[in-house]
Automatic annotation (TrEMBL):
Its cofactor is adenosylcob(III)alamin. Pfam families: Ribonuc_red_2_N, Ribonuc_red_lgC, TSCPD. It catalyses: a 2'-deoxyribonucleoside 5'-diphosphate + [thioredoxin]-disulfide + H2O = a ribonucleoside 5'-diphosphate + [thioredoxin]-dithiol. CDD domains: RNR_II_dimer (cd02888). It comes from Protofrankia coriariae. It is an enzyme of class 1 (oxidoreductase). Residues 741-845 form the TSCPD domain. This is Vitamin B12-dependent ribonucleotide reductase. Residues 158-693 form the Ribonucleotide reductase large subunit C-terminal domain.
Length: 969
């Protein structure tokens, strides 16, 4: 909802701004007299997107038109997310041309109306150049631009907002209202609650204040209610509290306590998984929480000093506590449930261009946009791989031209944009905050033979970021020369100039490693000189210009391999093909990196084939060990350490107006002390915001049943089967082996886990109890084959001696090691390891539903029935019986004294796509509709649209199947 009065008044003010001769626009990528559309080959495609749970069609539009070089995945996401008009109607957009024209023409018309161009020819060049870059996936505006610009809807161009709340009931209720309106439109918001009196302070009436934590409950319930009604995405919100607030401990522990409640309810049999029926009863789950820490507090932590918590109204000391104790409480809570994150208040405000207009007290939900209260973030991101020349050098000149044009377009959008409240309208038009950023840094570094966690990688990241922000501020100063500086500049002139000088000084301090990063940094230094020179005369058009967003949906639309500042997720990913099938391929940056490192083509082919089979580079044939680090990824065998992520963030932070959206992932084994160290190092290295996520810290993922595990550990009291005779009177229990009959029923299941293929054969007693298992993987005589045979024998003997299958299931599900990832089993879509898959499959086949429900192992039909609120017994899975001789031959166990019965049933999934070849490696097929996740990320939520597991994108998550995000980019 938009307040038209505020919008019209602001638009009039913008028109009245002083004008010069307008801007000259350079023609860089286009040719006079030739439209960008005429230079590409177009083709028609059918977009059909399904839900993997039940195969239902989520979205279908046939005959859409896209360039032939756009991937199927990018086509699907742009068609389903950004095309406007009712499906099936003539008004529905059917071509990428229509989408780009709708947006570009709106920008061009607004630029002409508001005097941005020196001549009509410049306006035409602007439209052609902007069209060319969008057509060729060089950059993308944030999603609200594609949703709204050029439509009959309000022209909202910002993804997320910062709100404010004061210590009055009217302000608190208005906060609820404003958040609700923002969520309704599909955007997100953040705010700081520190102005609200604590529960340890008195009201004027003599009563005790409720405190901010209590009011968070109402806002959380509102967000949980509205999120499913959002037009484009789920609600995203950030709640911040200052570290000296008297209720800081309660705030820090809110989500940690709720996580304990989730575990208790799960152990009692409630459905507490992400999207489960009972998770809605838990509070504070719809927001990210962050603590605003000061330099004073961090120094007190280091010195083991006391720290004062102060009243909100008069600043008096309410309580004195140990700074180290409070810091440990923050780290413990983050270790428990990933909240709260940290925002470094003094660092943020030291880089504030407008301190005379108010402090920066909050951020947007993903923490990359930090500026004044009641303002908005208007984002766009560049695809860095588009600036990589054939000789693997970075095209700094093309990059400068792109940033120049994009900043011009982003500033134009503020002239015609609509905002959700009058105050946000006023502040956004007064300060004109922009947030240009980039994606694909991780892919660029790998493709050029640079390790992400290396001096060379950080130097290149710093140089590119500095060049981006310098060019943006230079262009902002040029726009100010033509149209005037932002309205708040006069009051903040000295502060803004000081921050520009800090950026330039940071550029001079970068240590270069190679010739290319030195060259890019030299161009950046020249741009900073120009930015200061023009800005000193005319000021700047924008209070801030840059940040690094998660680039979730738009990153997929640009066919980026990596999002935001992130490294590559993994070396192997799934690629969607025409017709709906997917195939497992090695990331295309890998062969490029090998070429950059000087390997011969035949060696490259062997290494790529090895990676396709194993998922990592360790012991790859012909690959030198000193080059392993180039292929390190976010997860996998050689995962980048948490401090590797911190160091990259620290390298680029001095060159950003805002902050960086990124969550530092930590292994399950990480300690609370390590969380403390990361938060401390983030402060020392000058970051503005930081969040961590410890693997497996949340219940909303496949986890072992703790109650059952304890019961097993205590000896399994009360558990007795037909295979377990009662203990002898002497008290000594001697299990008796119950052998299977000579001829017994068995079943063979073929499976694929993370690309590794195998066969599981299970033999049953006449009463259907499991009595033996055979596992076939790898070639006869290999170490893996021998180990799996030995393991199968051990399990079979134990089963025949009365060890319940449930005991094995409790022990082995959620065991994590490679290979891991997607499977071809509709009931077990993702497995953390082969063992995790095998015992989930055995549980599904041989344990009753009630027992499996307690273990959290349900079939696809049972999960679907839970989602629809149905109950009852399970039916048989959709499968066919076949007498595949190839399977029978391969699956026959090579175990002494054992053979698979000729009457075994071989079960295969129906409807798998055709398997495809890739670079000579063994192909892996994946069911239609599966996510394009590079590797299993068990802790990520399931997409609410199509049901697949999402992948991290900064501090948010993105679905690679349909483009839905949990955040604001």
């Amino acid at each position: 909802m938009t307040d038209n009065r505020g919008t019209k008044a602001s638009k009039t003010a913008t028109k009245a701004a002083p004008r010069a001769t307008g801007l000259k626009v350079r023609r860089v990528n286009t040719s006079p007299g030739v439209h960008p559309y005429d230079e590409v080959t177009w083709e028609l495609r059918d977009v059909v997107m399904t839900n993997w749970r039940d195969g239902s069609v989520n979205f279908e539009q046939r005959g859409v038109e896209f360039p032939d070089f756009w991937s199927v995945n990018a086509t699907n996401i742009v068609t389903s997310k950004y095309f406007r008009g009712a499906l099936g109607s003539s008004a529905r957009e059917r071509s990428l041309r229509q989408l780009i024209d709708r947006v570009v023409r709106a920008y061009g018309a607004a630029g002409t109306e508001h005097g941005y161009f020196a001549s009509p020819a410049d306006a035409e060049i602007f439209e052609h150049e902007l069209t060319w870059m969008l057509l060729h996936q060089v950059f993308s505006f944030n999603s609200p631009v594609w949703f709204n610009v050029g439509t009959s809807a309000p022209q909202q161009v910002s993804a997320c907002f910062i709100l404010s709340v004061d210590d009055t009931m009217e302000s608190i209720l208005n906060w609820y209202r404003e958040e609700g309106l923002i969520f309704k439109g599909g955007s997100g918001a953040g705010l700081n609650l520190s102005r609200i009196r604590s529960s340890k302070e008195l009201l004027s009436s003599g009563g005790t204040a409720s405190g901010p934590v209590s009011f968070m409950r109402g806002a959380d319930a509102s967000a949980g209610t509205i999120k499913s009604g959002g037009a484009t995405r789920r609600a995203a919100k950030m709640v911040v509290l200052d570290v000296d607030h008297p209720d800081i401990v309660d705030f820090v522990e809110t989500k940690s306590r709720e996580e304990s409640k989730i575990r208790a309810l799960r152990d009692a049999g409630f459905d507490m998984d992400l999207g489960g029926r009972d998770i809605v009863s838990v509070q504070y789950q719809n927001a990210n929480n962050s603590v605003r820490v000061t330099d004073e507090f961090m120094r007190a932590v280091i010195d083991d000093a006391d720290f004062n918590l102060r009243a909100r109204l008069d600043g008096r000391t309410v309580e004195t506590i140990s700074a180290q104790s409070l810091f440990r409480t923050i780290a413990q809570a983050a270790w428990d449930c990933a909240d709260p994150g940290i925002q470094y208040d003094d660092t943020i405000n030291d880089w504030h261009t407008c301190p005379e207009s108010g402090r920066i007290s909050a951020s947007n939900p993903c923490s990359e946009y930090v500026h004044l209260d009641n303002s908005s973030c208007n984002l766009a991101s560049l695809n860095l791989m588009k600036f990589l020349r054939k000789d693997l050098s970075f095209d700094a000149d093309a990059f400068v031209a792109a940033v120049e044009l994009i900043i011009t377009a982003m500033d134009i959008s503020i002239c015609f944009a609509d905002f959700p409240t009058p105050e946000i309208t006023r502040v956004s038009r007064m300060f004109r905050q922009l947030g240009i950023g980039y994606a694909n840094l991780g892919a660029l570094l790998m493709a050029t033979g640079r390790a992400y966690d290396s001096e060379g990688g950080r130097a290149m990241g710093a140089a590119i970021t500095s060049l981006m922000t310098a060019t943006a501020y230079r262009r902002s100063a040029e726009i100010a020369a033509a149209l005037g500086a932002y309205d708040g500049f006069a009051r903040n002139t000295d502060a803004h100039r000081r921050v520009i000088r800090k950026h330039a000084a940071a550029t001079d301090a970068v240590r270069t490693v190679g010739t290319d990063d030195a060259r890019v940094l030299a161009v950046a230094a020249r741009e900073w000189e120009r930015a200061q020179s023009v800005g000193e005369k005319h000021g700047w058009r924008n209070a801030q210009v840059s940040l690094l967003a998660p680039t979730g949906t738009i990153g997929l639309a640009m066919d980026c391999d990596t999002t935001g500042i992130e490294p590559d997720l993994a070396l192997v990913k799934m690629k969607k093909m025409v017709g709906g099938s997917s195939m497992r391929i090695v990331n295309q940056t890998v062969p490029a990196a090998l070429r950059a490192l000087g390997y011969a083509e035949e060696t490259i082919e062997a290494i790529v084939e090895y990676i396709a089979e194993h998922g990592h580079v360790i012991d790859a044939p012909g690959l030198r060990r000193e080059h392993y680090e180039v292929f390190d990824c976010a997860i996998g065998e050689r995962a980048i350490t948490p401090m590797g992520h911190i160091r990259m963030m620290a390298a680029v932070q001095p060159f950003l107006s805002g902050a960086i959206s990124k969550t530092v992932n930590m292994p399950t084994s990480a300690t609370v002390e390590e969380v403390e160290q990361i938060y401390l190092e983030g402060w020392r290295l000058g970051l503005k915001a930081l969040a961590i996520y410890r693997d497996n810290c949340k219940v909303g993922q496949p986890l072992s049943d703790l109650r059952g595990a304890k019961r097993s550990a205590s000896g399994g009291a009360g558990e007795q089967t037909a295979a377990q005779p009662a203990a002898a009177p002497s008290g000594e229990h001697r299990p008796v082996r119950r052998r299977l009959p000579k001829i017994r029923q068995s079943q063979t299941v073929s499976f694929t886990v993370g690309g590794a293929e195998g066969y599981l054969t299970a033999g049953s007693y006449p009463d259907d109890g499991l009595g033996e298992v055979f596992i076939k993987m790898s070639k006869q005589g290999s170490t893996l084959s021998g180990v799996m045979d030995a393991f199968a024998i051990a399990v079979s003997i134990a089963l025949q001696h009365g060890v319940p299958l449930e005991t094995y299931v409790r022990k082995f599900i959620n065991m994590r090691f490679e290979p891991a990832g997607m499977t071809d089993d509709p009931d077990v879509r993702i497995a953390q390891s082969v063992m995790d898959y095998l015992f989930r499959r055995l549980a599904l086949d041989y344990l009753p539903e009630q027992t499996r429900a307690e273990l959290g192992v349900l079939s696809a039909q049972e999960r679907a029935r839970q989602l629809t609120g149905q109950h009852g017994g399970t039916g048989p899975a959709d499968a066919v019986e076949t007498a595949d001789p190839e399977v029978a031959e391969v699956a026959g166990p090579d175990v002494a004294g054992a053979a698979v019965d000729a009457g075994a049933v071989h079960t295969h999934q129906v409807g798998l796509p055709t398997t495809l070849e890739v670079r000579g490696a063994m192909p892996r097929s994946v069911p239609p509709g599966e996510a394009l996740s590079a590797q299993n990320v068990v802790d990520a939520p399931l997409c609410f649209t199509c049901g697949v597991t999402m992948r991290p994108a900064g501090s948010c998550y993105v679905c690679e199947q349909c483009g839905s995000t949990s955040g604001c980019s």
